[in-house]
Write a structure and sequence with these properties.
- The protein is an alpha/beta fold and 250 residues long.
- 37% of the residues lie in helices and 24% in strands.
- The chain has a six-stranded mixed beta sheet, with helices on both faces.
C-alpha cells in the first residue's frame, strides 16, 4: 500500500558501502547507489556476480555485513520486525519463476496477498482490486485458470498482477524475460514501462536481456567484482569504449 513515511522523493533508495560475503568469498565489496522516485534501473553483470544477493540485501532477506540502506528515508538495517514489514509491504518482487501457487487459480493467487495484508472480507473491494490489476496486465480472461494452464508470458503477467495488488512504490524484477520468446519478451518489457507509468513505481530490473534493458531502463548499472563498475544511460553503455561494458552490448 502507499506508505505514510516521509522521505526525500528524489532519493527513494540510497545505499552506501554495502558489503556481503559468504564464508571467505566477497560477493558485494562496496555497493553505492541512489535511486530516484520513478526511475527504472537495470542491473546487469555476469551470472553469479551478486545481482540477486544485492536485491535480497535491499530488504534484508539476506543480512548485509556492513553498509547503509535507506528506503523511503528509513534506515532498513535498524528496523525491528514491524518496521521492516511496513517497508517490505511497499516493495513488490517479480521472481524469475513467477512463484505462483500451482494449486490456486489466478484469482486465488491474487486473493492471497489481500487476505494476508489487507485483512478485508469485502468481496466488492476485493473483486475491484483483482479486476483492476488483471486489466492492467491484460489478463482478465485468465482469472479462473490454474498456473499450469498459462503460457510463460501469461504466468509473468499473473505474477506481476499479484505484485501490483498491494500497489507497491518499488518493484524488483528478477530476470523478467528469461525463458520467453523474443515477441513475448518485448511485450513483458513494454508492460514494465506501462506499469511504471500507470502506477508511478520505481523499478529495479535484474536482467541479461539487453533488449529489455533498452526498453525499460532510465539508467544502467554494471556489477563487476563486487562494485557497480559503470553506470549510465543505454546510449552511454552501448557506445562505451570500455571493453568490459562493450561485451554486454555487442
Amino acid at each position: 500500500m502507499n506508505n505514510n513515511f516521509t522521505y526525500n522523493k528524489n532519493e527513494i533508495i540510497k545505499i552506501e558501502h554495502l558489503k556481503k560475503s559468504f564464508d571467505n568469498l566477497e560477493i558485494l565489496k562496496d555497493i553505492n547507489i541512489t535511486v530516484k522516485k520513478g526511475e527504472n534501473i537495470a542491473i546487469i553483470g555476469q551470472s553469479g556476480i551478486g545481482k540477486s544477493v544485492f536485491i535480497k540485501c535491499l530488504v534484508r532477506l539476506i543480512q548485509p555485513d556492513a553498509g547503509n540502506i535507506e528506503i523511503f528515508g528509513k534506515d532498513v538495517l535498524q528496523q525491528d520486525s514491524e518496521g521492516l514489514k511496513k517497508i517490505r509491504q511497499n516493495i513488490g518482487f517479480l521472481f524469475q519463476g513467477g512463484a505462483l501457487y500451482d494449486s490456486m487459480s489466478v484469482r486465488e493467487n491474487l486473493e492471497f496477498p489481500i487476505a494476508r495484508n489487507l485483512k478485508t472480507k469485502d468481496e466488492q473491494k476485493i473483486n475491484s482490486l483483482i479486476y483492476e490489476v488483471l486489466d492492467s496486465v491484460n489478463l482478465r480472461t485468465a482469472i479462473d485458470k490454474l498456473p499450469g494452464e498459462l503460457s510463460g508470458g501469461m504466468k509473468k503477467r499473473a505474477a506481476l498482477a499479484r505484485t501490483l495488488i498491494m500497489k507497491p512504490n518499488i518493484i524488483c524484477y528478477d530476470e523478467p524475460t528469461t525463458g520467453l520468446d523474443p515477441i513475448t519478451s518485448k511485450e513483458i518489457s513494454n508492460l514494465i514501462v506501462s506499469v511504471s507509468k500507470n502506477y508511478q513505481t520505481t523499478s529495479l530490473i535484474i536482467t541479461h536481456d539487453i533488449n529489455c534493458v533498452k526498453i525499460t531502463s532510465n539508467k544502467i548499472y554494471v556489477l563487476k567484482d563486487g562494485i557497480f563498475y559503470k553506470s549510465g544511460t543505454y546510449e552511454d553503455m552501448k557506445y562505451s569504449k570500455d571493453p568490459w561494458v562493450k561485451n554486454f552490448f555487442n
